[in-house]
Amino acid sequence: MKSRKAMAFMFCGILAISIFSGCSRSKASSKEGVLVKDGNELNVFNWSEYLPDKVWKDFGKKYGIKVKYTTYSSNEEMLAKIMAGGGQFDVSVASDYMVDAMKKQNLVEPIDYKNIPNYKNIGKQFKGLSFDKENKYTVPYMWGAAVVAVNSKKINKQVTTYADLWDSAFKNSMVVLDDERALIGICLKKLGYSFNETDPAKLKQAKEEFLKLKPNIKMYDSDSPKTALVNGEAAAGYVWSAEAVLAQKENPDLKIYFPEEGLYLWQDNFIIPKDAKNKKNAELFMNYILDPKVSASISKEFPYANPNEAAHKYIDKDTINNKSLYLDQSIIDKGEHLKDLGDAIKSYDDIWTEVKSE
Q1: Class assignment of domain 144-265+328-357?
Q2: N or C terminus: which one in the chain shows less Cβ crowding within 10 Å?
């Protein structure tokens, strides 16, 4: 039988081990209080050119977490890798319609918002949207639109409607988003239909329009379409609003247009993929991103419209007042957010593959 003294030493040793190991969980202090973290790893999955390296590296240093940062170039690529399973990612970014699709396939985990006190910084208009009405699965990250940009020195034509992009003046000159919903979408809008059309006959018409547009398309690029607009490789583009603005800063000859049929609007959101291994770390990361100064630093490098209203006072006025980024309500009211199309998405896939391969 061990003595009381020996037992006391054993108890103290066990207690010390528990304290230093954190029993697989540890505390991360913040201004808002004490947040919980799981272990020392975090696997982030995000669009390319969407988060400064310094931000996720500083997060890792602050909380003693090893961050693995992986990028993708489309919502569909992101979905495919998450569907592969295995809990390989702890936090990802998904656009509005993709959140809806992933919910239906049970590919997202509910978020514990108690671990994200900075969620209060998000504007009310970005919460409770159709893809997450109960605010269970998402934390808004950035929002914006797809717009038209034209180098006025190279193409002497204004764009008032999507139909203008079919003009021969744009032959072999356009960089466009490598995104089937966006491209087939503008073909549908040209015809007077919705970005979310599912009627097979109308989609067949859209395919014919896509084929007619193809001679004007020089390249597909969703990652960094601004590059081609800046270096002159492309004289026009159908690109993300922030990419257009960044390109315009380097090339003032670029003019940005909002076709009158209405813009493709989007909101990107953080989600926690199913079977994430470090869920608490994912929530800690989201809370860090929503710190006003951190959030503003992201907007400084990648000036997409920021739903974090507390960050706006740290963002320069030229950015906040730029109507190509922070759209007027009248423009927003005319626009459309994409929706999950269910089985009809296969028709979009088929059109995309067939047209691009011809």
Answers
A1: alpha beta
A2: N
Gap between the Cα atoms of 250 and 231, Å rounded = 9
Q: What is the pLDDT of residues 313-355, one digit of tens each?
A: 999 999 999 999 999 999 999 999 999 999 999 999 999 999 9
| Interval 124-163: pLDDT, tens | 999 999 999 999 999 999 999 999 999 999 999 999 999 9
- Listing DSSP states for 57-102 in one string gives HHHHHHHT-EEEEEEESSHHHHHHHHHT-TT--SEEEEEHHHHHHH
Kindly list the domain boundaries of the chain, sorted by start residue.
25-143+268-320, 144-265+328-357
Please determine whether the domains at 25-143+268-320 and 144-265+328-357 fall in the same fold group of CATH.
Answer: yes
Instruction: Tell me the three state secondary structure of residue 251.
Output: coil
Q: Work out the average pLDDT over 208-224.
A: 96
Which pLDDT does position 358 carry in this prediction? 84
**Radius of gyration of the chain from its Cα atoms, rounded to whole angstroms:** 23
Residue 97 in marked binding region: yes
8 A C-beta contact, residue 215 and residue 171: yes
Say whether 328 sits in a helix, a strand or coil. Answer: coil
Beta strand 108-109 with 336-337 is: unpaired
Q: Give the dihedral sign, CA 342/343/344/349.
A: positive
Q: What value does the mean pLDDT of the chain take?
A: 91
Gap between the Cα atoms of 269 and 239, Å rounded: 19
Contact 144, 307 (CB under 8 A): no
- At 4 the pLDDT is 34
